[in-house]
Structure to design on (233 residues):
């Protein structure tokens, strides 16, 4: 395997980003941390239900026009992220496409990936954009129940939807990352890896916040000043 020294003109950080992306290291780290978070929360490592949603974001001018589109529903020109999460808002699958792709079409690939990687899942919740043919496809091809969570006809303004709030929370976590507030990647696959990196940071904080921060090794000496002089503690 080549080393960063062999690619001196490349920025070192991005070299590692592409290397770990191509090597599959990012996915392995992400999946291992997800298992740890689920165990720490008292859940089984494998989920039994998941949720799917899409998020349209604007793209930078450097993004190839062939991978961009216009989402007429959300009035956004750029790309669309399809994410599948468990009920703890942890990422199971991600798929980035042009924003012009319909939800019922773009959702098939991440649902298929989830079916292959997490066979114990039996139920999926989605919003109204996935209603229709996708429900039948999930039943016939994947053997899973895709339930549509519909808004109350009298709803005015934003309201938290039952079940679906978990995946919507993940979408808000992603947009809180400056690098993900807009899509800058020329490659769709690199966009998906950026999302996994964001989730890695979220899961690391979720694991470490359960205990106070501690420095490994012997504790340093602390000088305490008093009226009697300086004392080492």
């Amino acid at each position: 395997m080549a080393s960063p020294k062999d690619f001196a003109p490349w920025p070192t950080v991005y070299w590692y980003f592409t290397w770990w992306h191509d090597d599959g290291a990012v996915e392995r780290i992400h999946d291992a941390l997800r298992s740890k978070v689920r165990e720490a929360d008292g859940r089984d490592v494998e989920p039994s239900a998941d949720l799917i949603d899409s998020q349209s974001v604007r793209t930078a001018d450097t993004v190839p026009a062939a991978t961009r589109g216009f989402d007429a529903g959300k009035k956004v020109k750029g790309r669309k992220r399809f994410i599948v999460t468990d009920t703890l808002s942890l990422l199971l699958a991600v798929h980035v496409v042009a924003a012009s792709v319909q939800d019922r079409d773009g959702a098939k690939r991440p649902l298929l990936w989830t079916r292959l990687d997490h066979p114990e899942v039996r139920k999926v919740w989605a919003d109204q954009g996935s209603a229709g043919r996708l429900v039948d496809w999930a039943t016939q091809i994947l053997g899973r129940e895709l339930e549509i969570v519909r808004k109350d006809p009298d709803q005015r303004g934003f309201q938290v939807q039952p079940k679906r709030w978990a995946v919507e929370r993940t979408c808000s976590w992603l947009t809180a990352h400056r690098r993900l507030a807009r899509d800058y990647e020329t490659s769709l696959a690199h966009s998906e890896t950026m999302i996994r990196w964001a989730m890695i940071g979220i899961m690391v904080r979720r694991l470490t916040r359960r205990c106070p921060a501690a420095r490994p090794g012997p504790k340093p000496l602390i000088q305490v000043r008093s009226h009697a002089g300086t004392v080492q503690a």
Q: What stands out?
A: The chain has seven helices and eight strands. The helical segments are 12-23, 25-40, 103-106, 108-117, 133-142, 165-175, 188-208. The beta strands are 49-58, 69-71, 76-85, 91-98, 123-126, 145-148, 223-226, 229-232. The longest strand covers residues 49-58.
